[in-house]
Amino acid sequence: MLQPRISLCTFSCHQHWQALQKGVAGTKFHDAVSFFDYAFSLGAEGVQTAVHGQEQARAMRAKVDGGGYYEGDIGLPKTDADLASFNNDVQYVSDAGGKVARAVLTGIRRYEGFKSLAEFKEFRARGLKTLQVIEQVLSKHRLRLALENHKDQTVAELVELLRQVSSEWIGVCVDTGNNIALLEEPHAVVEALAPFAASVHLKDMAVQPYADGFLLSEVPLCTGFLDMPRIIATLRKANPGIGFNLEMGTRDPLRVPCLTQGYWIPFAERPAVELAKALAQVRDHPARQPPPSVSGKPVAQVLAEEEENNRISLAWMKTHIV
Length: 322
Prior knowledge:
Number of strands: 11
Number of domains: 1
Structural class: alpha/beta
Number of helices: 12
Helix content: 40-55%
């Protein structure tokens, strides 16, 4: 069996990236290549991140040729005028030694960013057109796009979209926790997306009730309520050499306001049993320990906690993904 690869995705270190952008002292990397070195020092084999330009691509390729692992992270074109830039980004990923690149159709959460069901349907139609247009670019460069389930589409909607595109060059970056925010059972989501899996955002999750719904947090692997061995086995069976990219977001818990009317606006009618099951999942899986938080903490403390969360999770991956 092919051996899976263990790497770190950009968002696992988003506190470090934000500190870098703000010019805060004490950050431990400054670009994609030094991020690779930092991830390697924590125990990863590589990274999932964006490379910018040929110089970075060549430097990353040297890491890959030395036994490292690299996956791209690219933005999708919004208009025809963006296609040339998209082609360049795909070329950089390929030149850097990447065979897969993660992307999202939107960076917003469905229940926060869409004001009507019609608006959401227009977004899906545009997404389908975009994927159909870029398929030739991906094929030319032999790069597989891994489209993340990004708190936007239910698993059934995403599977339908992939079947409409029907391309070997377009699969899924299976995020193991995101669809909890859409009230879906996470293990069922992984099993439904596994046949399309090109990459993974591996995360464990904790949930807590709050007045308008529930709070959702990434937590170090095997400290949340997800069955990590089951998830890993499912994805490895579907794609034995898949890249498991740790996504341990050190941040305040996300609010999922599923008990408010506004949450439901961009959804078609859904049975009440789905809400009941989601709230029962929250009730039945109390957090084992306080989840990560960052509000009110000094930057240096936040960066140290982020690093420790990643280090703990990568150590677990190296022991359990074999």
